[in-house]
Write a structure and sequence with these properties.
The chain is α+β, with helices and mostly antiparallel strands and 595 residues long. Among the domains are: 164 residues, D-Maltodextrin-Binding Protein, domain 2, CATH 3.40.190.10; 252 residues, Dipeptide-binding Protein, Domain 3 (Dipeptide-binding Protein, domain 3), CATH 3.10.105. The protein is built from 18 helices and 27 strands. The strands form 9 sheets. The protein has a 5-stranded mixed β-sheet with strand order 21-20-22-16-23. A 4-stranded mixed β-sheet has the order 4-13-12-11, with no helix packed on it. Helix 7 packs antiparallel against helix 10, helix 9 packs across helix 16 and helix 15 packs antiparallel against helix 16. The chain is globular, with a radius of gyration of 25 Å. 42% of the residues are buried.
């Protein structure tokens, strides 16, 4: 045991950390297995971000105000970084070691004295402490939710910082605080952290903001003087001299830019485009590559989220009826070229997904909640209906009609109305016209059973504001959970987040029983305990029917011009493109772009 000058004990400082203690890489490892440590540096990648946001008006990505540019994380270092070939392991970046006692009451990080901000000033424990204060008091609601049980951050000395944890949900907190960005204390003494701004912030990470046009594009430039470029966790990482992200108002414009050669790489999210719009000479002659990369991460949950804050969707029978009217089988055959599989679980494509009937271990968690959760959670797990693929499955639509009748929405002419004479209305909110073709048939099915369904397309700024205000009936969103989900579940499904402006809890899930199951997930002491708790939570959430699940594929469909080199190994839990690929100078010099 080592005692610091203040009397704080360091029990066993380690070079890395994971939730259940497993680490693949030993102390002093040379580099991650999924990189080329000798990859050439330089060149530029121009691509499109993977977020659904089609614009930006801020370079402050850690508050609720404004729509931030994507990949602002490239500007900031953190105490630790993830190894993306392990479920949740992290290794030291700014911190050389981490010490967490058995009771998980705190985490002590030892900082590297050589850490520097981009202006050359030292990065010290005082900066870490100030960062925590700013995020705890003024950060985005989803960040504040994740660090709710971090009671204190204090500087033990110039290069030692201690986080103190409270409550029973401490398991994930060392990793959460280890991944927080680190801001300059002196910088934010003269800059207001609470304001949306287009002034590039002072960072300490591998890139700085270069040229940008608000809402159109942003370029991140590699810093030659980056203090950590030779650390083992950074060898073979961030090889591009510039990372340029382009924003397009719709997918068609982005695809045309790709075909013309204005973009280097594009991940294609449209099955129609992937199947029909890459029949190009540039593809057939090998200049433009189209490739499917395996995706072993949990695919997350994409779907139509129903806003249960609105009285219309408070009755689970109404929500179930709306789900019955969506014909995935018809859509997959006629619009998606059979490329997708129906999503059923919030933990889709992972071993945390509930299957069949509850096991005895799951029932031990669920039985005390009987009467507080839907009865269906105790039987075979709720899954989306399977239609006959006709686009007009009469059995499913008849069942939906019966449920609406039972919920008090009776047919009165062409529409269903309640006892006040109010029509049953559902508005699908969109900011991308391309999705209208997918929702259109669903709208028609809903109208057949008397629902006044409609589509409203608004600009991205309005969309983001209405999203933050929960001002919608239903909208399409996708969220992903890590391989070892924990406190982030509160942001998506916790009761406190249901009324928190700008939170990820879009459907307004507000249930003490769900809160308790989230605690079981976050308190799991082994991966087996985690599976039992997560599957139990999955059963309850699926039985609540607050979303109409969409679809997924366990792969990334990527188009790119043949100018890249890449490592022989892809990281298991990440695309790894921005982080590990590089520009091959010879390929780039000889390639002819365009059709």
């Amino acid at each position: 045991m080592v005692l610091l000058g203040s009397g704080v004990a360091l029990a066993e400082p380690k070079h890395g950390w994971s939730i259940f203690g497993e680490l693949k890489y030993p102390p002093g490892f040379a580099h991650f297995d999924y990189v080329n440590p000798d990859a050439p540096k330089g060149g530029r990648i121009a691509t499109i971000g993977t977020s659904s946001v089609n614009t930006f008006d801020s370079l402050n990505g850690y508050i609720l105000r404004g729509d931030p540019a994507q990949r602002l994380d490239l500007l900031f270092d953190s105490l630790m970084v993830r190894a993306t070939d392990e479920p949740d392991a992290m290794y030291g970046l700014v911190a050389s070691t981490i010490d967490v006692p058995e009771d998980e009451s705190h985490a002590i990080f030892t900082l590297r004295p050589e850490a520097r901000f981009a202006d050359g000033t030292p990065l010290t424990s005082n900066d870490v402490v100030e960062t925590f204060r700013l995020l705890k008091e003024h950060g985005h609601e989803n960040i504040r939710t994740s660090i709710r049980d971090v009671s204190k951050c204090e500087a033990i000395d110039q290069h030692t910082v201690k986080y103190t944890f409270t409550g029973d949900n401490r398991r994930d907190l060392p990793g959460i605080v280890g991944a927080l960005p680190i801001f300059s204390k002196s910088y934010y003494q003269t800059h207001d952290f609470t304001k949306s701004t287009l002034e590039p912030p002072l960072g300490s990470g591998p890139y700085k903001v270069g040229s940008f046009r608000q809402g159109e594009s942003i370029t991140y430039q590699k810093r030659d003087d980056y203090w950590a470029k030779d650390l083992n966790v950074n060898r073979g990482i961030y090889n591009f001299g510039e990372v340029r992200l382009e924003y397009f108002r719709d997918r068609t414009a982005g695809l045309e830019a790709m075909k013309a050669g204005a973009l280097d790489l594009r991940e294609e999210f449209s099955a129609k485009s992937w199947s029909t719009e890459y029949n190009l000479k540039s593809v057939s002659d090998g200049r433009l590559k189209t490739e499917t990369l395996p995706d072993e991460t949990a695919t997350g949950a994409q779907g139509f989220f129903l806003n249960m804050r609105r009285p219309t969707f408070a009755d689970p029978r109404v929500r179930e009826a709306l789900g019955l009217a969506f014909d995935f089988e018809w859509s997959n055959k006629n619009m998606f070229y059979g490329l997708y599989t129906r999503t059923a679980s919030i933990f889709e494509n992972s071993d945390l997904k509930a299957e069949g009937s509850p096991t005895p271990e799951e029932l031990a968690l669920l039985e005390p909640l009987r009467g507080q959760i839907p009865d269906e959670a105790f039987g075979p797990v709720v899954s989306p209906p399977v239609s006959d693929g006709s686009g007009l499955d009469r059995k499913l639509l008849q069942k939906a009609s019966r449920l609406l009748d039972q919920a008090g929405w009776k047919l009165n002419g062409p529409l269903r109305r309640n006892d006040k004479g109010e029509p049953l209305r559902v508005e699908f909110l969109l900011d991308d016209p391309a999705f209208e073709r997918i929702i259109g048939p669903y709208v028609q099915s809903l109208r057949r059973i008397g629902v006044d369904a409609s589509i409203r397309i608004i600009d991205d700024a309005q969309y983001q504001q209405r999203l933050k205000d929960f001002d919608f009936d239903t909208l399409t969103q996708r969220f992903g959970l890590g391989q070892t989900p924990g406190t982030e579940l509160r942001a998506f499904f916790g009761s406190a987040a249901a009324s928190a402006h700008g939170s990820y809890n879009l459907a307004g899930v507000k249930s003490p029983a769900v809160d308790g199951l989230i605690d079981k997930v976050t308190q799991a002491k082994s991966r087996n305990e985690l599976k039992v708790a997560a599957r139990s939570l999955d059963r309850v959430l699926r039985a609540m029917r607050f979303w109409v699940p969409h679809w997924h594929k366990a792969s990334h469909t990527v188009a790119y011009w043949d100018v890249f080199g890449r490592p022989a190994i892809k990281p298991k839990y990440d695309r790894g493109i921005i982080e590990t690929w590089w520009i091959d100078p010879a390929k780039a010099a000889s390639l002819k772009r365009g059709p």
